[in-house]
Write a structure and sequence with these properties.
single chain; about 600 residues; alpha/beta; Rossmann fold; eight-stranded antiparallel sheet; about 35% helix; binds 6-O-phosphono-alpha-D-glucopyranose; glutamine amidotransferase; transferase
Length: about 600
């Protein structure tokens, strides 16, 4: 979603804000802007426009001086991307500047009220309301933080905000409610941002604000308080992600860098979690003893986008290894259908960012009804991680490209660990436990083997990317692989891709098959191999082309386009079958000259409904 960055200190703010915004651009990228204030000089300097951060940086004049500033990169929700709708937004007197992530739900009502009082609006955004509200409350010598508190009391909705006051450049006020704000502590300088990505170049000491909290940030420190002006105590924590992880490190795109990082990411997800002695997984963060783990009769997995598809693979693993009925559902649907929450169901929320609003809302709905929720989350200390009763951190490292790859694979590996653990408190034998543990340990090396085929996969991608659409089919274990493969292709290459269970093809979509619509068939060498070959035969009989991803080369009559992946244990094979589909989507997007890391209309963390 949108990104916020703020700086206060002895240096010029503008270059630091622009650098921070570039780091946040993966979150939203249709427009960007900055505002700075300097001691002793009247007025704010503001530059904002439609387009990328690089365009903004090019248009900021050299004399854009001031040691206090705020910046924003936007992903439009209220009003189209335009110069006027870009943040920061100002009040009528241009004394206050506000940047905002989230949605003000009563913006229309507040706008009408302010207009009736004579306020003139310059944009269509909900954020501009905040700038005018702060100005309206900055009367009778009120401090900036008091004006912001009073303004926020009138607001319904979600926000992470940073507010700059031309008359008080010794401070920035930030606030959080449903959209993250983190403070960065430097040497005689302070930072604030919506995401640590913007800060790691300057400091590793951070403070996460809680919902309902505000902070006054000065060059020499900060204070935090609630909406009712009660002071809160905060302990700084140290970010363990390296600055280098936020660079493409010589790769053409973050996406291919992150695909390539998967062996190391999986090693970190597994690190210290396999218990050889008892052929199980050791997951301290679950906060659950064996008796409690045994008591669950069902598992329900919730996530959005790729996190949901990873959850589908997770459900499959839990059912296979623990023989507990398990099901994944999009969190965005679940939260709105008044779900039945059962005491003997274990709920598991999946999120790379830990911020996806629909997933967070689903977690809150489960908790409100007394259910127990675990999180499978990448970002330590994120909103979803904090809301859950326990869980598993992926430790996959930061994922910057909008399309999820290494977090996807690490999530499925985390589910394999959860399933192994649940299996071993149920009826999974020590021998089967040891078999899965060995399979997990083999994964990093086997993923490397798949990555070595990049050149051949790129050639296939160039061949198939010419088509307007592609079908992806798989059965049972291969079905979520097909879904994620189709998702990856459509989100970054814009080639229409539809996933179907191979078993359902003949019940409808077979009508679409023609030489113009090729099919990617996921065909592991398992008990369904023959059935999958029959499906491929049906496609070939309709003159459809087939690209097969599997373990064995079929007779030439089925297809000659085959990507072979190493065999692991059947339960873990979906992980390896997914990797070539990531490379296929990546190279299709490159062949079509798409903006791989920043696909149109999408954002990395969707922190609004
Ligand atoms: C967005 C992204 C997807 C991602 C989904 C869930 O839609 O574009 O790539 O899978 O959010 O994100 P999360 O951070 O919750 O895993």
């Amino acid at each position: 979603m949108c990104g916020i960055v703020a700086y206060i200190g002895p240096r010029d703010a503008a270059p630091i804000l622009l650098e921070g915004l570039a780091r946040l651009e993966y979150r939203g990228y249709d427009s960007a802007g900055i505002a700075v204030a300097a001691k002793g000089s009247a007025g704010l300097k503001v530059r904002k426009q439609k387009g990328r951060v690089a365009d903004l940086a090019a248009s900021v004049p050299a004399r854009f001086k001031g040691g206090t500033g705020i910046g924003h990169t936007r992903w439009a929700t209220h009003g189209e991307p335009s110069d006027a709708n870009s943040h920061p937004h100002l009040d009528g007197a241009e004394r206050f500047a506000v940047v905002h992530n989230g949605i003000i739900e009563n913006a229309d009502e507040l706008r009408a009220k302010l207009q009736s009082e004579g306020v003139v609006f310059r944009s269509e955004t909900d954020t501009e309301v905040l700038a005018h509200l702060v100005a309206a409350h900055a009367v009778d010598g009120a401090e900036l933080e008091d004006a912001v508190r009073a303004a926020l009391k009138r607001v319904v909705g979600t926000y992470g905000i940073a507010v700059l006051d031309a008359e008080r450049p010794d401070r920035i006020v930030v606030a959080r409610n449903g959209s993250p704000i983190v403070l960065g502590i430097g040497e005689k300088e302070m930072f604030a941002a919506s995401d640590v990505a913007a800060l790691v170049r300057y400091t590793r000491q951070v403070v996460h604000l809680d919902d309902g909290e505000l902070a006054t940030v000065r060059a020499d420190g900060f204070s935090t308080f609630t909406q009712d002006a009660r002071i809160t105590a905060k302990e700084p924590s140290t970010v363990d992600w390296e600055e280098a992880e936020y660079d493409t490190a010589g790769h053409a795109h973050f996406l291919i860098k992150e695909i390539t990082e998967q062996p190391a990411a999986v090693e970190r997800t597994l690190s210290g979690r396999i218990d050889e002695r008892f052929a199980t997984a050791h997951l301290g963060g679950l906060n659950m003893d064996a008796r409690e783990a045994r008591a669950f009769r069902r598992v329900k997995i919730l996530g959005c986008g790729s996190a949901y598809y990873a959850g589908e693979m997770g459900a499959q693993l839990v059912e296979e290894l623990a023989r507990i009925p398990a099901h994944a559902e999009p969190a965005s649907e679940f939260r709105y259908r008044n779900p039945v929450i059962e005491a003997d169901t274990l709920y598991i929320a999946v999120s790379q960012s830990g911020e996806t609003y629909d997933t967070l809302a689903a977690v809150q709905e489960v908790k409100r009804k007394g259910g127990r929720v675990l999180g499978v989350v990448n970002t330590v200390g994120s909103a979803i991680a904090r809301e859950c009763d326990g869980g598993v951190y992926l430790h996959a490292g930061p994922e910057i490209s909008v399309a999820s790859t290494k977090a996807f694979v690490s999530t499925v590996v985390a589910f394999a660990l959860i399933a192994l653990h649940l299996g071993r408190v149920h009826d999974l034998s020590p021998a089967d436990g040891a078999r899965i543990a060995a399979g997990l340990k083999a994964l990093p090396g086997q993923i490397r083997e798949v990555l070595e085929q990049e050149k051949e996969i790129a050639a296939l991608a160039a061949k198939y990317a010419r088509h307007e659409g592609m079908m992806f089919v798989g059965r049972v274990r291969g079905w979520p692989v097909a879904r994620e493969g189709a998702q990856k292709l459509k989100e970054i290459s814009y080639v229409h891709a539809e996933a179907y269970p191979a078993s359902e093809l003949k019940h409808g979509p077979l009508a679409l098959i023609s030489p113009e619509l090729p099919t990617v068939a996921i065909v592991p060498d398992d008990e369904l191999l023959e059935k999958n070959l029959t499906t491929m035969g049906e496609i070939r009989a309709r003159r459809g082309q087939v690209l097969m991803v599997g373990h064995t080369r079929p007779e030439a009559k089925f297809t000659e386009d085959v990507i072979l992946v190493p065999r692991n244990e059947p339960e873990l094979d979906p992980i390896l079958l997914t990797v070539p589909l990531q490379l296929l989507a990546y190279h299709a997007a490159v062949a079509l000259e798409r903006d791989v890391d920043k696909p149109r209309n999408l954002a990395k963390s969707v922190t609004v409904e």
